[in-house]
Design brief:
It is a single chain. The protein is built from 13 helices and 15 strands. The strands form three sheets. It has an eight-stranded mixed β-sheet with strand order 5-4-3-6-2-1-7-8. Strands 9-10-13-11-12 form a five-stranded mixed β-sheet, with helices on both faces. α4 runs parallel beside α8. It is of the alpha+beta class. A hairpin with a 6-residue loop joins β7 and β8. About 45% of the residues lie in helices and about 25% in strands. The structure holds ligand 28F.
């Protein structure tokens, strides 16, 4: 008993408890232990690079799937701090990899962590769920390295050489006693990193699969951000506004980025993100966007006599026909709701998005009357089509109601 207390102080016991719990209940931290959860490990590590990019220090991220399903992620940021905490005698880097929620705690106080969200648990969870994990840091003129097995420190942070560069590199092998499969799907990672590159303009991300004889590779960097994203989504469609309508603004400490491009198609494609997470169920950011869109186009149509006094307002769905839009907001304390916890609940976001879209979109329409005319002609035709479909449906219903009412008569006669 006494020996035990000497070996482990209260803090270390806390550490072990935390990571043990991650291994016992992995689903609580990464959603599942299926292929989906496995891919999530990679996102957690890359999220840390993206945070460093959002802080303004990292320009390049390189991801490699090595033979044996080992993942390697490297960034050229400042490197995780290597200084040793006077009291715990543990380096900041080791703390990040062994303390559950270390990232979250730092984020709460300093606003450091911005990306990630659904689980947002970070490096320590990846470490706990890996057979082994090795971290190499270049910083303060040195190369430092530490390694772990199943979350436990095997080699504490050690200086192994000199370097005038900075950055962080992580290699890990996910634990096959925890995950159903260790087989990463290259396309899933490629698609996610393309999306991440669209969401962080100017950030270079490469992905390489070295498991096969002929390696696969992709490189992404988009100077246009979400503007490039909607152009990519519309690449096989015919645009109405060649240059996407673009909004990049911050209000009430909520950064918002939006791009909109109408096409001649009839579909509605609106993608929404909160802290780089795809909110597939929408939420307050989408509500604010839709409200502004409906109001601005109706106001414009009234003011320019496209809608006459007797005409009723265009409906939201008419105005969204043919739209492709991407909405990305950054929220400090996001509340996720809904069936899949993929719906933004923060009410303050609706007003922020609404007022920004109101202003930017009405200005755009006034400055681009020919585009405004083309979009509104489409809205009006969508509205007429909707009315015609409703009338046709009613006619069919009335007819079948009549036929139904004659049925009893026939039955009686039989
Ligand atoms: C391949 C994975 O994890 N990159 C990271 C940094 C940089 C800092 C940091 C990370 C803040 C206070 C701990 C550096 N200098 N790539 C990565 N790059 N974490 S993770 O700090 C994290 C906490 O101590 C960093 C100054 N501030 C922050």
């Amino acid at each position: 008993m006494e020996k035990y207390e000497h070996k482990y102080g209260a803090e270390q016991i806390q550490v072990l408890d935390g990571l043990e719990h991650v291994r016992k209940r992995p689903g609580m931290y990464i959603g599942s232990v299926s292929a989906r959860g496995l891919h999530h490990l990679v996102y957690e590590i890359v999220d840390n690079c993206v945070d460093e990019a959002l802080a303004g220090y990292c320009k390049n991220i390189n991801v490699i799937i090595e033979p044996g399903n080992i993942i390697s992620v490297e960034d050229d940021g400042r490197g995780i701090p290597v200084d040793i905490h006077a009291k715990t005698k543990i380096s900041a880097a080791e703390t990040v990899y062994t303390q559950l929620n270390a990232g979250g705690k730092f984020g709460g106080d300093s606003g450091y962590k911005v990306s990630g969200g659904l689980h947002g648990v970070g490096a320590s969870v990846v470490n706990a769920l890996s057979t082994w994990c090795e971290v190499t840091i270049q910083r303060d003129g040195g190369i430092y390295q530490m390694s772990f097995e199943k979350g436990k420190t095997i080699k504490p942070l050690t200086r192994i050489g000199d370097s005038d560069k900075t950055g962080t590199k992580v290699r890990f092998l996910a634990d096959d006693t925890i995950f159903e499969t260790l087989n990463y799907e290259y396309e899933i990672l490629e698609n996610r990193f393309r999306e991440m590159a669209f969401l962080t303009k100017g950030l270079f991300i490469s992905i390489e699969d070295k498991r096969e004889e002929t390696p696969k590779k992709a490189e992404f960097i988009f100077e246009g951000g979400l503007k490039s994203f909607v152009e990519y989504l519309n690449k096989s469609k015919e645009p109405i506004n060649k240059e996407p309508i673009y909004i990049e603004k911050e209000q009430a400490e909520i950064p918002v980025e939006i791009a909109i491009q109408y096409t001649t198609s009839y579909s509605e494609n609106i993608y929404t993100f909160v802290n780089n997470i795809n909110t597939i169920e929408g939420g307050t950011h989408l509500e604010g966007f839709k409200r502004a869109l409906t109001k601005v186009f109706n106001d414009y149509a009234r003011n320019h006599n496209i809608l006459k006094e007797k005409d009723s307002n265009l409906q939201g769905e008419d105005i969204r026909e043919g739209i492709t839009a991407v909405i990305s907001v950054k929220v400090k304390e996001p509340q996720f709701e809904g069936q899949t916890k993929m719906k933004l609940g923060n009410s303050e976001v609706a007003g922020v998005v609404q007022s920004m879209v109101n202003e930017a979109l009405s200005t755009f329409l006034e400055e681009n009357p020919s585009v405004a005319k083309a979009i509104l002609e489409k809205c009006v035709s969508a509205s007429r089509a909707r009315e015609a479909a409703r009338k046709a449906r009613e006619l069919v219903r009335r007819k079948s109601a009549l036929e139904t009412s004659t049925l009893p008569r026939k039955t009686c006669r039989l």
